[in-house]
Amino acid sequence: MIRLVALASVATLSLAACSAPPPEPADAPTEPVAPTSPVEPGAPVSTAEKLTAQGFGPLRIGMTRAEVEAALGADSDPEAVGGPDPESCDMFRPARAPEGVLVMIENGVLTSVWVSRNTAVETDRALNVGDSAAEVKRVYGPAADVIPHKYAEAPAEYITVWATTDHEGAAARGLTYEIGPDGRVESIAGGGPSIQYVEGCA
Q: What is the CATH number of domain 50-196?
């Protein structure tokens, strides 16, 4: 994401050109890179934010629940059951997150972010709920790891793409696309090993 640009040294100009501004370095970018604007406290996150292996919007895998709530608000539906044992695993939509975006908190730490029922939220590869499995596989190529769906027959399946060589430890990061019986993405999870859970916190 961060591009380091080495500035070339500029040769001494002749006296006739002293009044002219110095030339642009040869390898300077033609357009400035706009800095990422911080999310204002209390502001809802736009669906333009991308779901990645590292999180979504201001959410980053590894945050505490308190940090998640400070970033996007508390549970929008505190009466809903997010898991059989919320102290060890809980899923909920933060109040300022887009519809269909859920966070998974395990033992007080954010381990993954999930999106379903919202075709506007996309991944950093511009993939959305509703896209075909063929498109997901085309985008990722041989990096896509495909396994059969636990409850539905083919073409239902899971497509996982890891951003790290570690797939099980705390540092593991990836994205899983759940493909439904119609061959299209039903949900997407980004984060750590919990992206492989097929029943949420159940």
A: 2.60.460
